[in-house]
Amino acid sequence: MGPEELKAVSGVISSGYIAEGAIVQKFEQSFADYLNIRHAVATNSGTSALHLALLALDVGAGDEVIIPSYVCCALLNAVNYTGATPVLADICPDTCNIDAADIKKRLSHRTRAIIVPHLFGMAADLGSLLALGVPLIEDCAQAVGSEYAQCPVGTFGVAAIYSFYATKVITTGEGGMVVSSSRDIADRIRDLKTYDQKDDHKIRFNYKMTDIQAAMGLAQLERLEAFIRHRRAIAGQYARSFKNLGLNLPPDDSGHIYFRYVLGLNTDSLSWIQTLARQGIGSHRPVFLPLHRQMKRKGFPASEKAWKNSLSIPIYPSLTDEEVTKVIDAVLDTAAKIE
Fold first, then answer.
1. CA 75 – CA 117 distance, rounded (Å)
2. How do residues 251-267 score in pLDDT, each as one tens digit?
3. Which residue of 45, 220, 236, 254 is 20 to 30 Å from 191, comparing CA positions?
């Protein structure tokens, strides 16, 4: 964040109108224009956006929603909010995205939707997933600006959701967005996200975004392409530096925005995390705990291996050249010690 965000937010505060208003509407329209999609509805978080997208598809008790195991628990929460049954699927080992072939084994007459995260900023195999004939909700929380077949992710499913949390590709502090080509879905989401001043009563929510958040979002959206260029430049440096280490590097895909740079190790990532920390480099397992472990399920070998052996190293737009060099040196040194 910089002076652009400070100026935008200060302008809203100075206006005296800080709740959801004209700035939110402008952010929604600008975001829809960026994706070249008809409708965008701002929310207070990505999880809220996902909850509303499921409700707009009439997902509820008795339905099943397929989600990957190797993902954060927000997806599990959103499905549980609706009363539907979450069904876990495994991932593709080379991309860490949900595996269409594994989904096919888990489909039933109760399957109402599939939630498809574009994990770490790389598009899932949307062609194979669309061929399953089940409504897709694209989870683009880590993938603003990513592309599949030279088209923006988020424009293939019946709806897509975005997160603007503090660490995401662009941020509003907290916030989210649902996009869709369907006016009916967008209208239902707009109705459900606010409970006041309605002629009838049904369960609705307080999932609104504020003009303060939207002002920051507009400033961030203007800088998105620069953010992505810098992420890709860092990823290129990492790929050149690590190509001879015998590690699994992120796929070299033209639509990848590298929200995370994830190394596939030949050992448990914990030893790497500890060794890099001693050199002043923060690194983590990119998914805290896969859902099959949280739910005490077995039978997800690719997700289990990815959780144990994957390592996320620093990559973000404000990372300096000096810091990138420090990360590279630390990774090379750690690889020599451990691998």
1. 9
2. 999 999 999 999 999 99
3. 220
